[in-house]
Amino acid sequence: MAKHSGGKVGKAGKILSDPKTSKTQKSKAGKTLSNHKKKMH
Questions:
Q1: Predicted structure pTM score
Q2: DSSP string, 5-30
Q3: Distance from CA of residue 27 to its chain's centroid?
Q4: What is Dmax (Cα atoms) for the chain?
Q5: Over the Cα atoms of the chain, what is R_g?
Q6: For 21, what's the count of Cα atoms within 13 Å in the CB-facing half-sphere?
Q7: pLDDT value at residue 5
Q8: Is 1 inside a domain boundary?
Q9: Is residue 4 within 8 Å of 17, Cβ to Cβ?
């Protein structure tokens, strides 16, 4: 999978890969990424 570095999608990826983030943040980030995948890929 291509690595996104900028914008909302990049931020979501960073949140998901960081072990210190909370479950609620991860769930939001996961939604952002899956929506992006559905639309763009």
A1: 0.67
A2: -SHHHHHHHHHHH-TTS-HHHHHHHH
A3: 9
A4: 29
A5: 10
A6: 16
A7: 60
A8: no
A9: no
